Structures are given as C-alpha cells and as structure tokens.
C-alpha cells in the first residue's frame, strides 16, 4: 500500500494545480449525450473554410463496414459498432476521427450516411463524447462540408453541437498536445459557424500554448518527433485557411507563421536525409504526414527555412562521412505531461548510407500491458541499463513517477557528452561521451557510484542485418561494419521485435554488453568509401 501511494505521489506531484482541479471536476461531472449540446441558431452564417492544399489520404475505409487503422482491419456486419473497443482505445479513436471523409471514395452519399450513423450514436449516448476525438473529427467534418455545395443542415447541427460541447470541456486536465488540438478545432469551428467567442477562445489558447509548447529550437515540448509532425501539420493547416480569412488578425497570423518556421527547422534537423524520423519517445511510422510532404506544404505557404539549430530540446544530430547519428540528451518532456515519454536518456539512432543501422524498439501500441511497458523501458533503447531497472519510473501506459534529469556536459560538432541521475536511488550516475570521426564513432560509458550492480549496454541492430561475434568478442555486421568493446566484456546476441508501425513488428538482433564501470564502444565503418 505504501509503495503504491509513493508511486502515485511521485507521479501527481509534478502536475499543475489546474490539472488537478480539472481532473476532479471532470471525474465528478460527466458529459451528457450530444443532443444536450445541439442548439444552433437559424441565423448563424456558415462560412465554408477554403484551403489551398489537401493532404494525401491513406484509404482507411473501403465502404460496406470495412475499416483499416493502425494496421488492423475490421469488417462490421449489420452496421458499424462506433464504440468498438476490441482493438484498444486508439483504434476506436481513429474510427471516430472521420479522416476517411477526405478520401476520394466512397462517394459523398455513402460518407453522409456513415457519419449520420456516428452522430446518432453520439446523440443518444451509445458513444460517449470525448474532447480529443471531437477536436479531430470536427475539423475533418468542416473540411468535408466546406468542399461541397450541398447543404447538410443535420450534420452542420451535429458539428455545432460537438464544438459547443468542446468549448465546455477543454482538456485542461491533460494540457499538452490535447489542448492544442482543442484550440485548433475551436478556432476553425468558430470561423465556419461565425462564432466569435469560439474564435476568441481558440486564439487565446493557441497564443499561450504555442508560446510554451514550441521550444526555442522549434521542438514541440513533448519531444516526440511523430507528435511534432502532427502538430506541425495542424499549424500549417490553420495558416492555410487563416491567412485567407476575411476576419483574420495580422499580428496573430505573423505569430502562427513564426512558430511554423521554428517547427520546420526542428523537423528538418531531427529527420534523417531520407525523411525518416528517429523513433524517440512515442513515435512510429505511418501515423503522421511525412517530413518531405510537410516541407512541400510549408513551401507552398511561404513558411521559409531558417538557420535554427538543435538546442533546448536536448536532441543532437551529427552528420559525418556516410553516417547520420541522432542523440537523445533530452529531458522526459514537460514535467506535468510526460505521457509520451520513454526511459531513454542518452540513447541514439544511427543511419549509414541513408539506411537504418542501430534503431530503437519503437512504439507499437498504447494499450496498457507488457508490450507497452517494454517499449517504454530503458532496455528497449540504445543506452545503459543498471541493475536491470529503468532510468525513469515509467508505468501505467502513460505515467512517470521518479524521473531522470539529463545534463549536457559538452556540446561540440565532433564530441557530445551527457549524464543523467536516473539511478540516484542506487547511488549511481551514468555519463556517456560520443566522439565522432569520419570513419568511426567512439562511445564511452562511465557508470560511477556502485561497483556491485550489473551494467548492460543494449544496442539494437536494424532487422535484416546479419550479425556474428568473432573470437575477440568483436561484432561483425553483414554490411561491413564492426563494433568493438573494451575492456574485456561479455557480449550476448538476443532476438527482439522492432515496431514497424502500430501493431506490426520486424524481428531483429540486439547486443547486450555486460561491463563493470566503464565501457568503450567503437563503431568502425568501411574505410574504402
């Protein structure tokens, strides 16, 4: 009981007072069905929103009850179960988002029938209203309704009702990217329905939250490259419409563009040359719009490149010779919202000749359980595990109790050094130094404070690369790269599963290197190229 109380205390003590107040409020006051929020004045002037650019759509609805989200296909017989939870909450959320309205097919008549059924479930309470899916769905609905010359008063009433609900249920208990999505939806919804108070609220939240959530180097403060892509797209989408809106405020437009310029710079800096992102924290392929497409969209909106370099976020990028290395010297993220954080301090991802070489296990699920726990753990990342424990106490799917504090000690083009105190309860500090040369990378790990505890460096090799250990305990990879460890150590090759998107995996090999207090790892590349 005391252990559980301490876990909760170490988690809750980082929350803002506002979050706690709204947690209590929203637990006590449950939302009603959609029909409770459905009043729409007959004299409301609907203004279709005009966008210059439409994103590429993955076909997630094939018609006749067939849906595919997160690499899981489901066919509903006899009508869609809009509260279908068998594949987890995130799959159900994707069903509710209604992104498929922007697909070319099926036709608009089928789309109208489908979302009419969805709103029927929301109206009678079979599907509860939740602010996050309401935010994403209302934007998709507004974009779709704005494309057509056909009047759909019943659907307009439903979208108005859910935005009315959202205006009363903003996610102040969570904050972070959720509150941003709420604000984007309110602002665009206010423009569509000519609701001045929604516009005012949306702008007020965006001014405050973008100022806090976009760091000095352009990173979104939750420090997930995938969520950065998601928020960057939403910001570009807003600029696309807002810059042409007759009621726009020039100062606010300039503010949005300045944040977009910064976010563009960070995304370029953190992405690999081929457009991939490192899967730091909760990141996965196939969810957000790709870096290359986002850059094209930014160009169309005259969101220019800037000279911002990686800084406050704590991530670093080194390109030398034929390799690209992304290093995680970041904190967990905002102290009051670390839900998408992993216990991954001082980890790294390495690409060679434009292809992945050393990767992390990534993120395949948000469902609470063994897989989620493993993917957030320290051993799922390319860093050092002490006493087989996590650096930060990640638990419950999206929670963190005690946290590692990371400090960058040295920050040069060819040398980066960081340390963290995540093992302070064990009396241990981990310091890692990267030395970069055109033909090799040297990584020095120093674990000080307790000689008796086990220390293991986990290194994940990209699936498909063959691996062997020679007689000197050197690791030889099939692409000609060798990895050596000094002083004398024990190296074990173990199977692992890398997330290849949500709910999809590739099998690969990882190295587990046991050492005492210091380990020097040298990654040597082919010298002939």
UniProtKB/TrEMBL annotation:
PANTHER family: HEPARIN-SULFATE LYASE. One of its GO terms (cellular component) is periplasmic space. One of its GO terms (molecular function) is lyase activity. Keywords: Lyase, Periplasm, Signal. It comes from the Bacteria. Residues 159-287 form the Heparin-sulfate lyase N-terminal domain. It is found in: Periplasm. Residues 309-525 form the Heparinase II/III-like C-terminal domain. InterPro entries: Chondroitin_lyas, Hepar_II_III_C, Hepar_II_III_N. Its main location: periplasm. This is Heparinase II/III N-terminus.
